[in-house]
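Hey, does this match?
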Amino acid sequence: MNIEELRDYCLQKAGVTEGLPFGEDTLVYKVGEKIFLLISISKGNRFNVKCDPELAVELREQFTEVIPGYHMNKKLWNTVYMDGSLTIKQLHEMIDHSYDLILKSLPKKIQEQIATGSF
């Protein structure tokens, strides 16, 4: 997976917005105004995603491409390298997990707006 494929995958999800709130090098993907993924444009081989704390540790133990989140809360975020042995399906699952965690944390009203496309 490359940065363009990652971008396309994130933007096809309901309610997702893309921005550069931390400067011109860091693409940020949000759902309901909350971040679920960050990626450096200049270092496009890795991204940060939110993760359930227990699953975060499991993934780090299972895959060398998954490390504690760079510049993030190490308990809740992982940095995932895309240029290793992880499959596209595995990368998608990590992105989906992060998106779902954030979506479920939003108020019900916003979740409904996203589901109906009115957010």
User: Anything to note?
Assistant: Residues 3-116 form a domain with the Aspartate Aminotransferase, domain 1 fold (CATH 3.90.1150.30). The beta strands are 16-19, 26-31, 34-40, 46-50, 66-68, 77-81.
